[in-house]
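Please, structure for the following, as tokens.
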Amino acid sequence: MKNRSLFCGSFLLLSALSLSSARAEAPMPVATAAVVTPTYTFGARIGGYGFREHTDAAHNPWTDCRMNGLGVFAERAFGRVAFVEAGVDFYFAESWPFKPAAGETEMDRVSTLTSFAGGLRMFGGKLVSPYVQLGAALEVTRVTMDHGGDVAPVHGTFVLPVGFLSIGGDLNIGAHLSAGLDLRALLMGHFDHETADATALRPELGMAAQMQFYAKYRL
């Protein structure tokens, strides 16, 4: 009986030591931070903008120096909310679909804008996803002012800063393709072409309203 008790005690001791050793050798779980995989998107857009018209209440108030154009852009999203955007747009003076006010000096303007913006998106991944953006741009613009008569046209090339705030929304057509609309308020250089001053071109800060339609593809 004594030998049997000794055997049982030894067996229990060895089992306890083996269990303790197995627990010590088992790897401890390591907490890891969630990794957010960025999503890349590229697209194209078309639209127009105009400055506020001060002199003729009968005209649409955003038809001064009407500019139409197109551009390309790329986005990088971080999760479903935050994203950044870079774009290049080409714009040119065009009165369509509005006509300039009577008495305005004829002006031609061609601009290239390089823009950068950050934004926040609502309802990421849903069928409709609104967003807001805050950004800045650099505009390289070539302006020609023709006052008519015997006065020679005045030319000038300028590099001007631009700031903008925009709201818009994506319509997610599929897993990769989206279309949408973007409305922007811009602070940018404006040239007075309602006076008879033909000696110089002087850019001044003005507010413009812009509408763009776009399509984009997520990689």
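Confidence is low (pLDDT under 50) at residues 31-36. The longest strand covers residues 128-146.
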